[in-house]
Amino acid sequence: MSKAGIDDFFLVKKGIDNVGMSDTDKFNLFHTIFDFILNSLRKEKEVGSISKENTKRLDWLEKNYTKLETEFLDRSLFINFGFYSMLQGCIMKDDFKLQKLDEKCINEMFEMQKEVFVEGYDENLLRWNTLENFEDVYKYKRHQILGVFSGQKLVAFGVLYVPKSCEFLTKDEFESLVDREDIQKPSYAVIKLIIVRKDWRGNGLQRLLISKLEKTYEDISLFLATVSPLNLFSINNFLKMSYKKYIDKSVYGGHERTIYYKVIK
Fold first, then answer.
1. How far is residue 245 from each of residues 34, 154, 156, 235, measured CA to CA in Å?
2. Residue 158: pLDDT above 90?
3. Number of helices and strands in the chain (H, E)
């Protein structure tokens, strides 16, 4: 374990099973186990000590992580671990630091976006934001951008957009949702963009940013997210964060998006 750079693991008593577990507990169990495996293999690769067998395991896990998580959380799955497991509570997360990003970070965020699109993303999955789009965020103080740093490196960021009017929903759509959910604070914010660098995925950073952005304003209880129907990874994350599907709409110049929402009372 020390060769992998991990020294804060502990033993969990044998006989762990998922009977009676809440979805949150299952989620935490999955990430305790598989984040440990994924990041251990990544660490081996980083220090150059990874074997051919573990290289294959790492490649498979990188490609199938989301599918594995979905199957693990399926309510029809029963799991019992009849052995002692060496687990680590928060793999490498002590190295992560969250902070608000100011205008000095615009170029770095823009370059991070380029990296994502180079990997093969297009506007059917993720909207391309111009430098002007990023600059516009800072023209209204209610908008917020949070960044996640690993050491001095920006590895993820998320944008919270607070519309001044009904920009993502029509007035009727908004009022219908307010009435349906009995929302007492009739304003909303949009989780507009979250980007995580490839090498730092698998650490729950998207969900971490969603959670922190939701806590930005006490006077906002309704949060929206626009997600491509093809972006299954983000859809799964928002559903796990208790977001619900509302409607499908054409936004961002004609791109199909599903509007998800969450009410925090």
1. 28, 31, 25, 9
2. yes
3. 7, 11
Amino acid at 123: E
Which DSSP symbol is given to 121?
Answer: -
How far is residue 35's CA from residue 41's CA, in Å, rounded to a whole number?
Answer: 10
Q: For residues 199 and 115, is the Cβ–Cβ distance under 8 A?
A: no
Q: From edge to edge, which strands make up the β-sheet containing 96-100?
A: 96-100, 144-150, 153-161, 188-196, 222-227, 255-263, 244-251
Sort strands 222-227 and 188-196 into parallel, antiparallel or unpaired: parallel
Contact 31, 92 (CB under 8 A): no
Q: What is the pLDDT of residues 173-223, one digit of tens each?
A: 888 988 888 887 778 899 988 999 988 887 888 888 998 999 888 888 899
Interatomic CA distance for residues 72 and 65, integer angstroms: 10
| Cβ atoms 160, 225 nearer than 8 A | no
Distance CA 150, CA 94 (A): 9
CA distance 116 to 111: 9
| CA 148/CA 165 separation, integer angstroms | 29
Ramachandran sector of residue 120 (left: φ over 0; alpha: ψ -120 to 50; beta: rest): left
pTM above 0.90, yes or no: no
- Residues 120-132 pLDDT 10s: 666 667 778 888 8
- What residue type is assigned to position 22 of the chain? S
Tokens 């199957």 belong to residue: 71
d(CA 260, CA 226): 6
Q: Which residues, listed in sequence order, are joined to residue 191 by a DSSP beta bridge?
A: 160, 225
